[in-house]
Amino acid sequence: xRLGQRLLGRPELIEQDDLSLPNNVELVATREKLPADKRNDxxxxxxxxxxxxxxxxxxxxxxxxxxxxxxxxxRAQFLPHKGNRRVFLIxxxxxxxxxxxxxxxxxxxxxxxxxxxxxxxxxxxxxxxTIRSRAVPFHFAPLxxxxxxxxxxxxxxxQPERRVMLAAGSPGVASxxxxxxxxxxxxxxxxxxxxxxxxxxxxxxxxxxESMGRSKSEKxxxxxxxxxxxxxxxxxxxxxxxxxxxxDLRRDLETLAARVEFAWIRKAVARVDEIAELIRRNIQKTIxxxxxxxELRGT
Length: 299
Fold this sequence. Notes:
Elements: H1 2-8, H2 11-15, H3 22-31, H4 36-41, E1 46-49, E2 52-55, H5 66-76, E3 86-90, H6 98-109, E4 115-119, H7 129-132, H8 145-155, H9 160-167, H10 171-176, H11 179-196, H12 202-214, H13 220-239, H14 250-257, H15 262-277, H16 285-297
Parallel strand pairs: 2-3, 3-4
Antiparallel strand pairs: 1-2
């Protein structure tokens, strides 16, 4: 967005399409409840500025769809309204399905001279090699603690210190993090780890699992992100005892860290990685997590 503002002007319009803003978060969440045909008829995009267009992951599985990349290809041909550039942003392009990725490749092979296409990805190696080869990579390091504190201060974020710790150097995460929802997910994932480490009986997890299964709006990937954070904290406490992200749970996590070995944590992370790879297949979250616990309890 900063590049778009410098090239196109009217920064107040471009900032309206910040995907971490509450209105935009709500819009994306609302679209999850729409039937697929309605989403396909009206592909998700944000275009408050006529020459700056943002394509964001859409639908229950939060993917970049072929309908979006077809619309991108169509709109890419339009000349700029003002100036000599248009800027398109594809957020999380690594969530494009195979059809969408192949459709996008056609635009990358013959881009219009006026188009600047910016793509963000958590893992560039989830992209087709032919897409990677046609892009110039920029790797962004996390911001430092002081930079994050200044960002939180300028934005006037609530509970700034906690947001800074949990965001891991990402301003977007810090501003969009719903702490109440995070705490609920964290309580469930802490119960999972206690059961998996043998600190609590499996039956204690079973009741939690049932309530989680009834929540259709809560995506598995949200829980996995919290679980990764807790496993990271366990590793730090197990190996070094340094600073962790979930300081308010330090006593609980220290107790767990004393029960498990490094190999257990490594195996847990590997199994969570495998579950994360299956998210796009719409796997049943409680079955996946139940299986994770049973495997780790036997370690």
